[in-house]
Amino acid sequence: MEETEGQGPVGVVNMEGNGMKLVLASKNQKKLVEMNDILSQLGIQVCSEAEAGVDVEVEETGTTFEENSLLKAKAVMEASGLPAIADDSGLCVDALNGAPGVYSARYGGEGLDDVGRYRLLLENMRGQMPRTARFVSVITCCFPNGDVLTARGECPGTIAFAPMGEGGFGYDPVFFLPPLKKTFAQLSPEEKNAVSHRGKALELFRARLEEYLKEN
User: Fold this and answer.
1) pTM of the entire structure?
2) How far is Cα 46 from Cα 143, in angstroms, rounded to an integer?
3) Within a domain: 2
4) Residue 11 falls within a domain, yes or no?
5) Are strands 182-183 and 175-177 parallel, antiparallel or unpaired?
6) Nearest 5°: phi and psi at 154?
7) What count of other Cβ atoms lies within 10 Å of the Cβ of residue 36?
8) 100 phi and psi, to 5 degrees?
9) C-alpha span between 166 and 149 (Å, rounded)
10) Residue 57 sits in a domain of what CATH number?
């Protein structure tokens, strides 16, 4: 991917004179697509670590979404020399005292895939009430000059009794939205982005980034 030379005041790589590039601190391709769908309207391109020529494994030692999001963004910014954006997100289930929370991607241990994790969740929710839950996303962007922008989004819902839908990833097939009578996995990408925790966090982030770029 070609990049034009020249660093802006915040270490931003300009593309064709008017765009901006952020490196996503994640290997999750579906997250990359979601971020680009929402941020491309600002003329912002989000590229993968591989496209930026870095491969960073960050140990998520934080106890909050904010801490882990910052850890990831900072590590990839330092490795790439470019502004880096990270999303730390997870599912917080009321009947499970907020679990799996920050451990959503590691729920049940390393051996489980997405399907294994949501099946374990359904098993742990058997007979549990209420089934209320919320998805949380915290977006952090670290710039090479030391500046940090952050935004948080939440989406309330309930845990379905069985998986429904083929779309999305992670816990999407079991996260049910009562107003829409669908799980995240039954929504189109556009529908999901309009209501999701990540969509809300990115909209807020987009507004903060616009403000930041005007000031810099």
Assistant:
1) 0.86
2) 14
3) no
4) no
5) antiparallel
6) -135, 150
7) 16
8) -75, -15
9) 33
10) 3.90.950.10
Using alpha carbons only, what angle is made at residue 210 by residues 52 and 102, rounded to the nearest 5 degrees? Answer: 60
As for how many domains the chain has, the answer is 1
CA separation for the pair 47, 148 (Å, rounded): 19
- Residue 148: its pLDDT value, please? 98
The dihedral formed by the CA atoms of 68, 81, 50 and 108, expressed in degrees to the nearest 10: -10
Give 149-187 pLDDT, tens digit per residue.
999 999 999 999 999 999 988 999 999 999 999 999 999
Tokens of 182: 């669908």
> 135, 197 in Cβ contact below 8 A?
yes
How many CB atoms are located within 10 Å of the residue 95 CB? Answer: 16
Any domain includes 4: no
The parent domain of residue 172 ranges over: 20-215
Q: Which residue is catalytic, options 87, 88, 94, 113? A: 88
Rounded Cα gap, residues 173 and 182, in angstroms: 9
Q: Tell me whether residue 190 is in a domain.
A: yes
How far is CA 82 from each of CA 4, 20, 28, 78, 202, rounded to the nearest angstrom?
Answer: 13, 10, 19, 8, 19
Catalytic (active site) residue 88 = yes
Instruction: Return the closest-CA partner of residue 70 out of 60, 79, 80.
Output: 60
- Render pLDDT for 54-107 as a digit per residue (tens, 0 to 9): 999 998 999 999 999 999 999 999 999 999 999 999 999 999 999 999 999 999
